[in-house]
Amino acid sequence: MNLFFTTNRNQTFTVSIKGEDAEYALKEITRFIHYHQ
């Protein structure tokens, strides 16, 4: 599964998730979003 995000600065990034990695990926996404606010 690929998740695509666009930040409020129009930076787009993609996260590829395997089932067992979903929790880790969500933590990384959250950290990334907070860092780029």
TrEMBL record:
<protein>
    <submittedName>
        <fullName>HPr family phosphocarrier protein</fullName>
    </submittedName>
</protein>
